[in-house]
Write a structure and sequence with these properties.
The complex is a heterodimer. Chain A is an alpha+beta fold. Chain A has 2 helices and 9 strands. Chain A has helices at about 1-25, 50-65, and strands at about 35-40, 45, 70-75, 80-90, 95-105, 110, 120-125, 130-140, 145-150. Chain B is mainly β. Chain B has 1 helix and 17 strands. In chain B, strands 1, 3, 4, 6, 8, 10, 12, 14 and 16 form a 9-stranded parallel beta sheet that branches. Chain B is flat and about 45 Å long. Classes of the chains: A alpha+beta, B mainly beta. The interface of A and B includes residues 123, 139 and 146 of A.
Chain lengths: ~150, ~220
């Protein structure tokens, strides 16, 4: 019994630590809703199909965001527009969306430019999921709207 | 018996540790940033956080004729933090922050240019705290700030304007042992400074107005 008593504290401490470390990973981003709508002036956006662009972008986002739900690519006037939906970190601590353009010559993502951009981001988090959003716009006549809600 | 005593003691500490670690995770946070460069841009942000929730916003606009508006609601010890930076002329910045249940509002507005307008409104109830700062550099600027704190609320506000033909207005209301602290500093000519504080069962009110230059008007109604 003395032997058990001696190591009981250590066993319980290790168990508590294990529970603490496992806790965040067990949290799922259930119930999250993220809506990003981008209204494009002039032409309607069409889904980008170039494999090299998709592979390049997915490589970036898989590195930055281990778990992602969906991405949409639009090509307008030679520019790619990347819209991200429901990016949930594996520990369920944050998710968010961003809108970028894809600069073809240099194969890099960049902020919106050329003006007259309209971006809406709506995010709904829950008690264990934070929301994060960034809108970067370059040019004149841009409108950016962000709505973020906590648990109801 | 010794075994069960040690078991109970360890379980108690493990439970307390788990509760301590689980506590901060309950706070939900919303974070948003805007970066807009150009003319005639609009940045509009609405955030709601509940139960120790945290809202943070920091729009940056460079150009003229830009509009930045922020609305933040925090409930039950919520925390609102908003900063607006506008560089250029003819810009409009507005912040509205209501917090309830020991909520805390922090707001900062900075404008560099001419003919800019800053509006800021904060309300806090039940031990709520409001803190706000407005800074404008340039001529023909207008800054207005309103704070309401109820039931031992706390208001703190400061306005600073550098330039000519500027207008600064500051109104604070507190009830039931509320505290109002306010400071206005204007440097330039043809300036107008308005400061008004009202409270019921007030615990403390201090206000300071400093104007330097010519053709300036100062109004204070504590």
């Amino acid at each position: 019994m003395d032997y058990l008593n001696r190591y009981l504290g250590l066993i319980l401490a290790c168990g508590t630590l294990a529970l603490f470390l496992a806790g965040p990973a067990m949290v799922q981003a259930d119930g999250n809703q993220l809506e990003i709508r981008h209204l494009l002036g002039g032409e309607d956006g069409q889904l980008g199909t170039e494999d090299w662009a998709l592979e390049y972008l997915e490589g970036i986002y898989k590195k930055d965001f281990p778990e992602k739900d969906s991405e949409y690519y639009y090509k307008v006037n030679g520019q790619y527009l990347v819209v991200l939906f429901n990016i949930a970190m594996d520990q369920g601590q944050s998710f968010g969306g961003s809108i970028f353009e894809f600069h073809e010559p240099e194969r890099r993502r960049q902020t919106q430019s050329y003006g007259n951009n309209f971006s809406i981001i709506q995010q709904v988090g829950n008690s264990s999921v934070d929301t994060f959003a960034t809108v970067s716009q370059d040019g004149d006549g841009n409108v950016g709207i962000i709505r973020q809600f906590g648990p109801h | 018996m010794k075994f069960y005593g040690m078991l109970g003691s360890n379980l108690l500490w493990a439970s307390l540790f788990s509760l301590f670690m689980a506590g901060p995770a309950l706070a939900q946070s919303n974070t948003a940033n805007y970066f807009q460069l150009g003319l005639g841009n609009v940045a509009d942000l609405g955030q709601i956080a509940t139960e120790l929730g945290v809202n943070m916003a920091g729009p940056l606009q460079i150009g003229a004729g830009n509009i930045a508006s922020i609305s933040q609601l925090a409930e039950d010890a919520g925390f609102n933090r908003a900063s607006q930076f506008q560089l250029g002329s003819d810009n409009l910045a507005s912040i509205v922050q209501p917090a309830s249940g020991q909520g805390l509002d922090l707001a900062t507005q900075f404008q560099l240019g001419h003919e800019n307008v800053s509006d800021l409104g904060q309300t806090a109830s039940a031990l709520g705290r409001n803190m706000a700062g407005q800074r404008q550099i340039g001529g023909g600027n207008n800054a207005s700030l309103f704070q309401l704190a109820e039931d031992e609320g706390f208001n703190s506000a400061s306005q600073t304007q550098l330039g000519n033909d500027n207008l600064a207005s500051l109104v604070q209301l507190a009830s039931e042992q509320g505290i109002n602290l306010s400071t206005q500093v204007e440097i330039g000519n043809s300036l107008t400074a308005i400061m008004e504080q009202q409270s019921t069962g007030n615990l403390l009110s201090t206000n300071i107005q400093i104007l330097t230059g010519t053709n300036n008007v100062a109004y204070m109604a504590p």
